């Protein structure tokens, strides 16, 4: 009975990105906004507020995933640095082969990587510090990690839950090194002033909890600077996702609170890519799958079209 009830939405192969934007939601929203989540969703997360920072509590899977989030963000930013962008003297150029370094002897490939990474470090040190918007920041797990980076100037976290923001403010006050770098606000993304623009926007584990994901994405993009980055993560709408996140995660292993996920709100990776193809001023630069292994934690997987995934989008125009 559990399997048949939870699997029903898999058979609905309509696009959630476009489908949920065209029709009114059948649920009552906590906020009187199109992009808001339902009252049931808000009640669920408010109940988790007190244990948000317990690394062994209900949010322990989120704490473990945060390590992979940070890796994805930092690796993406570093890998897309143009090493020879402003070099005028050919002798000063960093060698970037047009083929895999695995084809070269190990000693040579390691030397090339060393030179490239040293150049990336130099470029990052000279770049202006980043101003970041963390949408759906919850209790501030990601916001605090971002604030600890040397190349970050400020982090603004927004959420619709009063209780989790109280937990976020309380926890940031415990670390004076980051307290002044982070600000939290109870607001929806469409209520953020249009004059506020950011170098980097994050939206992790958000789209599967809102009623109109395309409206959330559209609102977020209006706050992104030229050449800025949007980082998102969500879950494909497939059998693997149902089995791992809902059946096993919530009902069998009980490592995720029951009611956290709803399969009919999951969004396929291809749907988001297709959505961005209609917006030429943005490019999807990277997409990676991620899988939770009980005895290892979260790891990247080569299949972003199955289960959980991360995506990086850059404003190019």
TrEMBL record:
Q: How does it assemble?
A: Component of a multi-subunit COQ enzyme complex, composed of at least COQ3, COQ4, COQ5, COQ6, COQ7 and COQ9.
| Annotated EC | 2.1.1.-, 2.1.1.114, 2.1.1.64
| Cellular component annotations (GO), alphabetically ordered | extrinsic component of mitochondrial inner membrane
**Keyword list, A-Z:** Magnesium, Membrane, Metal-binding, Methyltransferase, Mitochondrion, Mitochondrion inner membrane, S-adenosyl-L-methionine, Transferase, Ubiquinone biosynthesis
**What is the organism of origin for this protein?**
Wickerhamomyces mucosus
Respond yes or no to whether keyword Methyltransferase is given for this record. yes
GO molecular function ontology, one term from the record? metal ion binding
Question: What is the protein name given in its UniProt record?
Answer: Ubiquinone biosynthesis O-methyltransferase, mitochondrial
């Amino acid at each position: 009975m559990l399997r048949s009830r939870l699997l029903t939405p898999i058979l609905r192969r309509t696009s959630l990105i476009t489908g949920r934007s065209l029709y009114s939601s059948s649920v009552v929203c906590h906020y009187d906004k199109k992009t808001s989540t339902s009252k049931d969703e808000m009640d669920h997360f408010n109940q988790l507020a007190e244990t948000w920072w317990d690394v062994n509590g209900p949010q322990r899977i989120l704490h473990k995933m945060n390590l992979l989030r940070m890796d994805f963000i930092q690796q993406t930013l570093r890998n897309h640095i143009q090493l020879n962008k402003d070099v005028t003297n050919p002798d000063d150029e960093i060698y970037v082969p047009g083929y895999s370094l695995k084809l070269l002897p190990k000693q040579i490939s390691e030397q090339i990587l060393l030179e490239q990474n040293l150049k990336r470090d130099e470029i990052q040190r000279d770049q202006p510090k980043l101003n970041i918007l963390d949408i759906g920041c919850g209790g501030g797990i990601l916001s605090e990690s971002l604030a600890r980076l040397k190349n970050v100037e400020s982090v603004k976290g927004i959420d619709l839950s009063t209780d989790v923001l109280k937990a976020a403010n309380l926890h940031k006050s415990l670390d004076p090194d980051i307290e002044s770098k982070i600000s939290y606000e109870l607001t929806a993304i469409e209520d953020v002033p249009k004059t506020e623009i950011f170098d980097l926007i994050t939206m992790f584990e958000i789209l599967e909890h809102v009623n109109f994901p395309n409206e959330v994405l559209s609102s977020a993009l209006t706050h992104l600077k030229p050449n800025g980055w949007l980082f998102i993560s969500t879950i494909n709408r497939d059998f693997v996702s149902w089995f791992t996140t809902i059946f096993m995660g919530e009902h069998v292993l009980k490592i995720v609170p029951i009611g956290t996920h709803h399969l009919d709100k999951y969004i396929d990776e291809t749907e988001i890519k297709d959505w961005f193809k209609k917006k030429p001023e943005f490019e999807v630069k990277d997409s990676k799958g991620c899988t939770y292994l009980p005895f290892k934690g979260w790891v990247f997987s080569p299949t972003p079209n199955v289960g959980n995934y991360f995506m990086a989008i850059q404003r190019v125009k």
